[in-house]
Specification:
Elements: H1 2-14, H2 18-38, H3 42-56, E1 70-77, H4 86-90, E2 100-104, H5 111-123, E3 130-135, H6 142-158, E4 163-168, E5 176-179, E6 183-187, E7 216-225
Parallel strand pairs: 2-3, 3-4
Antiparallel strand pairs: 1-7, 2-5, 5-6, 6-7
InterPro entries: MIT_dom, MIT_dom_sf, MIT_domain_contain_protein1, MITD1_C, MITD1_C_sf, MITD1_N
Domain MITD1 C-terminal phospholipase D-like: 83-222
Protein name: MITD1 protein
Amino acid sequence: AGAETVKRAVELDVASRFQESLVCYQEGIDLLLQVVKATKDEAKKHRYRQKISEWITRELYPDLFLSDGKYHKQIRIEENATGFGYEKLFQEYLTEIVSEVWVEDPYIRHLYNFLRFCEMLVKGPCKVKTIHLLTSYDEGNGKSQQISGLEEIQQSLRNYGVTLDIAFSSSIHDREIRFNNGWMIKIGRGLDYFKKPQGRFSIGYCDFDLRPCHETTVDVFHTKHTKKM
């Protein structure tokens, strides 16, 4: 089973479906490690270990496996950098099997940013059916506008067959986005890492790839782990 899974990973690798191949590599290596532990023949055990090591250290993925076996990729967005629209950060992780998304962010205030994120999910190639949003209430007069805006997004998503589940918490402080295919993205500033455009008719107002960003760090993880040999 492990060999077949890795064979599938190689096929995905060749097809440039790198994130899917990563998951298959992880699952296949995990299965083969179990075989290594159960094998009594030292020659076979040595051969298996060499092959597993080869897969782990593939040139395509030099940074995938850290000392604890966890996948971790970090992206540094510099002050005023452009070219970091939501598609740039998220698209490669939105595989066809993604049907459920969790957004935890205490400061969902710029609702157009959240709306733009939802539009990306609706466009696919994923087939999102449910988006869970956990945030906190805006303070003062902004609360009613926040609620009505989120309800409008909720209704609009319903027209596309997507359910937006909204919950509020006064104690939430972490910012993270999770997909049900195992990928998790943490952005230091949450979804609101874009700077305010100079005006409604300035470049970058509609196209987020052209909008300058605040400095922030993006960390990408996968929930599956590869055991150490």
